[in-house]
Amino acid sequence: MRVSKKAKQFTESVIRDMTRQAIQHDAVNLAQGFPDFSAPEAVKLAAQEAVAANINQYAITWGAQNFRRAIADKFRQGQKIEVDPEREITVCCGSTEAMIATLLALADPGEEVIVFEPFYENYGPDAILSGATPRYVTLHPPADEDGEWSFDTAELRAAFSHNTRAIIINTPHNPSGKVFTRGELEQIRDLCVEFDVLAITDEIYEHILYDGARHISIATIEGMRERTVTINSLSKSYSVTGWRVGWAIAPAELTSAIRKVHDFLTVGAPAPLQAAGVAALTMPGTYYTELAENYALRRDLLLRALREAGFKAYKPGGAYYIMTDISGFASADDREFGGRLVKEIGVAAVPGSSFYSENGGGSQQLRFTFCKQIETLHRAIDNLRKLQQG
Ligand SMILES: Cc1ncc(COP(=O)(O)O)c(C=O)c1O
């Protein structure tokens, strides 16, 4: 049977496949980034109450008004940017839909979209589905495990052309844990302005930061407010990845295009969960401090264990993943090693190549997540000890 040329250009998600393999082999799943602990009680209760209060029919297609207001309030508090919830916010089914709706609405076939690699695996297919061509710029790992991943300024400039429509930024970054600095965002701004390019920024890990790192939204950098789409979601900040509620904030003209695409893609995000989203977005500041502190403990625990087991493990400044280099192990490549890890050692991780476009990229890398209960991490760590024995 024939399938579309678009669908032929990418494979099934490797991350979701690793989750299936983890279940099949009864391995500890450190592959997919979803918490195995409870969402905050107040947020769960708000969802139950919304269903009981009959908020069960379609919300306004671009998002319930009170939820959009809560998004605007939180953006103002966090980033000091005033946005109009009536004209500049589209609520979507997770940041996943916000990203694809944005690209479908704003990019045309023949245009290029710059993506830093390694990248969160949806961005390449997102660009392809929108008809645009992804253009990759490498984020280089640091020589020292505790150092920062970085891009080469000349390589970034070389990727921009008058065919470039947008650059996708993800900070804090999955899979590397990089937190983009103001200086780096200003370099990106200079190029966006020079080449008249949009920034589409995925900020879903904005509250998961370590060692005093600060999250900066590129929309706050002078000259970027009018050319930025800021994407975020409830998934990671409130540990509700299954709710599928996210949003895109963009200038009114861009928003009206995003809203049209969103309407025909999904009609709308779940109404009761948008109502509960108001409770989530108005959590006190201490909630976010605790969230980051709890993840810092987990990061340190897994980082130490991975290094002891023989991995070169890069210390993340944000998000909840550890990217590792596996060249210390005598293995053919990331897929072979990832397969052995899930079947024989009992830990699922994600082969590095799924975060790269080219064959060979990431072939000596493996990504582990630590958004799990301490007990889950201990089970994984016990299993990883088998690597030293073997
Ligand atoms: C960088 C990044 N963006 C988007 C997503 C998906 O987010 P959502 O659940 O809001 O669709 C993930 C999930 O792991 C991610 O890591």
Q: Which sequence of strands runs across the widest sheet?
A: 2-8-7-6-5-3-4
Mean pLDDT: 95
H/E element order: HHEHHEHEHEHEHEEEHHHEEHEEEH
Helical content stands at 40-55%
Structural class category? alpha/beta
Principal-axis shape equals: globular
**Number of continuous helical runs:** 13
What does this 3D model show about the protein?
With 390 residues, the chain is α/β, with parallel strands linked by helices. It is 41% helix and 14% strand. It is built from 13 helices and 13 strands. Strands 2-8-7-6-5-3-4 form a seven-stranded mixed beta sheet, with helices on both faces. The protein has a four-stranded antiparallel beta sheet with strand order 9-10-13-12. Helix 11 (285-308) packs parallel to helix 13.
Q: What structural keywords apply?
A:
390 residues, alpha/beta, seven-stranded mixed β-sheet, 14% strand, binds pyridoxal-5'-phosphate
Topology:
Layout: H1 5-8, H2 14-24, E1 28-29, H3 41-52, H4 65-79, E2 89-92, H5 94-106, E3 112-117, H6 123-129, E4 133-138, H7 153-159, E5 164-170, H8 182-195, E6 198-202, E7 228-233, E8 246-249, H9 252-266, H10 271-281, H11 285-308, E9 312-313, E10 321-325, H12 334-345, E11 347-348, E12 350-351, E13 365-369, H13 374-389
Parallel strand pairs: 1-11, 3-4, 3-5, 5-6, 6-7
Antiparallel strand pairs: 2-8, 7-8, 9-10, 10-13, 12-13
Helix pairs in contact: 3-10, 4-10, 5-6, 5-9, 11-13
The site of pyridoxal-5'-phosphate has 13 residues, from α5.
